[in-house]
Structure formats: C-alpha cells, structure tokens
Amino acid sequence: MCPLHTFSSVARSHNFAASAVSRRHQFLIRSLGGVRGSASSRRMAAGVTNLSSLGLEADAGSILKRITPPLDSGLHKGQAGKIAVIGGCREYTGAPYFAAISALKIGADLSHVFCTKDAAPVIKSYSPELIVHPVLEESYSIREDEKASVSSLVVAEVKKWMERFDCLVVGPGLGRDAFLMDCISEIMRHARQSNIPIVVDGDGLFLVTNNLGLIAGYSLAVLTPNVNEYKRLVEKVLGRNADDQDAAEQLLSLSRSVGGATILRKGNADLISDGETVSVVSAFGSPRRCGGQGDILSGSVAVFSSWARQQISEHSERLNFSSSNPMVLGCIAGSALLRKAASLAFAENKRATLTTDIIESLGASLEEICPAK
Ligand SMILES: NC(=O)C1=CN([C@@H]2O[C@H](COP(=O)(O)OP(=O)(O)OC[C@H]3O[C@@H](n4cnc5c(N)ncnc54)[C@H](OP(=O)(O)O)[C@@H]3O)[C@@H](O)[C@H]2O)[C@@H](O)CC1
Ligand SMILES: Nc1ncnc2c1ncn2[C@@H]1O[C@H](COP(=O)(O)OP(=O)(O)OP(=O)(O)O)[C@@H](O)[C@H]1O
Ligand SMILES: [Mg+2]
Q1: Domain count of the fold of the chain
Q2: Would residue 14 count as lying in a domain?
Q3: What residues are in contact with ligand 1 under a 6 Å CB criterion?
Q4: What's the complex ipTM?
Q5: Which keywords accompany this UniProt record (predicted)?
Q6: Structural domain containing residue 93
Q7: Which of 54, 180, 236, 347 is most buried as measured by Cβ atoms within 10 A of its Cβ?
Q8: What is the CATH number of the domain that holds 236?
Q9: Which residues surround ligand 3, an ion (CB under 5 A)?
Q10: 290 assigned to a ligand binding site
C-alpha cells in the first residue's frame, strides 16, 4: 500500500486537502458561474442545498491510492491490465495513440489499437509499444456488394481478441463513416454480451448518441463527453439544452435515463454520475486546451476502472468508498491524474504545453501519489 504521508504532500500541493465543504462551495461557484447577489448566484444557492446532499468533490487522492495495485514480482504479463482502443482512421491517428500509450504509461501491461488499414502504419510508427491491428474498413475502400462480407470479417477479427481485454475504449479518432459505425455497433454488442467494460469517447459518442440501445442499461459502460458531445447527448436523451445551473442534477438524470451507464462530463470541473451518485473532480489542471487531453483521459479511465473492478472483487470489505461502482472510481482516478499531469506539464512548458508533454508527466504524477516502492 502507498504510504499516507505521500498522499498528504501531494494533497497540499494539488488542492486535494481542501475541506470537502470548501471544495464543494468553490466548485459550485465555478460551475454555476455565480456573481455575488446576482440572479444566477441565487439560483446557485438553491442548487447548493440540493447538490451537497449528493456528495460532490471526490476524495480522488485516496481513491487513486487504493485502486492502484502494488507492483508485485509474483504477477505475470497482463495481470496489470490489457486494454484495447478501437479508433484511428485516415484523418485521425493521434487520438488512438494518445489513449493507448496513456494506458501503458499508467501501468497497463498491454495496449492494443484496432484501426483502419490506412491509419495502422502511422500509429505503429509512433510507438513500438502498441499492438496495432489494421482491421477496420471505411466505405471509400470497399464496393457496395462487398459490404456484408467485409463487415463480417471486420467484426470477426475484433471478436477473436475480445475476451482477452479488461476494457475497450471505443471512439478516439474513429471518424464517422456509416459503414464503420455499423461494424463498431456490432463489436459493442458483442463486448456487452461478454461483460467487457467499454469507455465511449469521441466519435464513439456520436454513434452511441444516435443508437442509445448500445449502452442503455449497461453498467460497465462509461461515456466521456466533451462540451459538444454532452450537448448532443442531453438534447437527444432529455430533449433539453445542456444546463450549467443545475449541472449535477441534470447529469444524474441523464445517467438514470440511460439506465445507469456512467457519464463523465468534461469541463472546467469534471462531473461524474452513474445515476446513483454525483462526484466532482475540480483540482486545477492546466489552462492549455490543446487537443488530445480527452484521449489521455479515456485511456486512463479504462485502466483505472479495470483496477477498481479487480480491487472490489478481491477486497470489497476494506474498500470504503463513496461509490462502489468501479466505473465511477475509474473516472475519478483518471480525471484527477490527468489534471495533475497537465499541471506538471504546464509548469514546465507553459504555452508550449502539448498532449505529449502531459503524457510524459503521467508517470511522475502517479508516482507522487502512489510510489512504486
Ligand atoms: N490528434 C488527433 O488525432 C486528435 C483527434 N481527435 C478526434 O477528433 C474527432 C472529433 O473530435 P472533436 O473533439 O474535435 O469533436 P467535437 O468537439 O465534437 O467537434 C468539433 C467540431 O467538429 C465537428 N466534427 C467533428 N468530427 C466530425 C466529423 N467526422 N464529420 C463532421 N464534423 C465533425 C463537430 O461538428 P458536430 O459534431 O457538431 O456535427 C464540431 O463542430 C474524434 O475522433 C476525436 O477523438 C481529438 O481527440 C483531438 C486530437
Ligand atoms: N475549461 C477547462 N478548464 C480546466 N480543465 C478543463 C477544461 N475543459 C476541459 N478540461 C480538462 O481537460 C480534459 C479533457 O477535456 P476536453 O473537454 O478537452 O476533452 P476533449 O474535447 O474530448 O479532448 P480531445 O481533444 O482529446 O478530444 C478534461 O478531463 C478536463 O479535466
Ligand atoms: Mg475528445
């Protein structure tokens, strides 16, 4: 287990130690955009009463420490996690790379990428660490009369690996080709039948928003929408606009409406709900909004939720968390670690901070909270 004093020093420097009440208060002020005495702050005050009873700011440092497994010479390759990212097409090769390499940097043993044939050599060239499968096809590369047979082949190629994975990340850099979307739907149905957790991000959210049945009622699904993706999801599911005034209540109701899939709403503060609880991670990260940070998050959530699942199955009696849902714990851990890594990378690189710099800070960030030895 990680020594407690390590957590205390991290907590001091990264705001984990602020009292729960003050953090809740700060979050609500930020998320609801209140100005003292204004109408919006009065609405906010009403929200505080409702939301504080749900429990907001997560004790992310403690969760990170308790779900991260110790390094143990008795373990063999694969036991610390096998993750697969399904994404990467002609346009986007960075996003699946960011998600897959982040999973490895955090501590997973194996990270696979299933992408289109065009994207595969590019992704392989970024890193020899990733196992890259050039199996996906887009409409432009196949004839109409081939579609049925190619679709069966694509799905079969992914299915034969599926049972080995602890978690899939569906969507980073996937694109929105209609043929590809149909194949991915089939792959997701199969993953669900096999009880494999799925983190849905990027274009996977475009697919799911238009096919809610893919994740509805699946408690091992996590959706990680950014501001645009959340807006589309809320409009589709609740028939309303995304709400910043009652953000936590709306998220709770959104998650309930999709049958308890966990949703991580990304933004200034990250909000997480599985329809039972709402948690917030609001520790300051970085003011740089370079593309790719959401991809780091999706790869991280895949690893941490797999670890949380394992810890809960082995030691549920001594894990006294606010939520017993491993997908929620994985979201909290992933969000907190990303923010810490972004803050370290920004301290060093300032305006030049890029996603690759944040990835390079993941190891040191986790080490401060949970040392390897
Ligand atoms: N280095 C990389 O490889 C990175 C790659 N990335 C990858 O990029 C993909 C899109 O993710 P994103 O975050 O740009 O989507 P988002 O903010 O909803 O859209 C912004 C605007 O663009 C538009 N739009 C998007 N896709 C479209 C499409 N296929 N065809 C048409 N329009 C499209 C969208 O329009 P709308 O959705 O409203 O119709 C909105 O106006 C996703 O795969 C992600 O993983 C990122 O992870 C960053 C690093
Ligand atoms: N305004 C903000 N202030 C502080 N942190 C933010 C802000 N917006 C997003 N973040 C952080 O950046 C992370 C990525 O969120 P973002 O909204 O950039 O995702 P994304 O658009 O999906 O990213 P990507 O470019 O990888 O697709 C979130 O977990 C959140 O912690
Ligand atoms: Mg994204």
Answers
A1: 1
A2: no
A3: 92-95, 172-176, 202-203, 226, 228-229, 291-292, 294-295
A4: 0.93
A5: ATP-binding, Lyase, NAD, NADP, Nucleotide-binding, Phosphoprotein
A6: 60-369
A7: 180
A8: 3.40.1190.20
A9: 202, 294
A10: yes
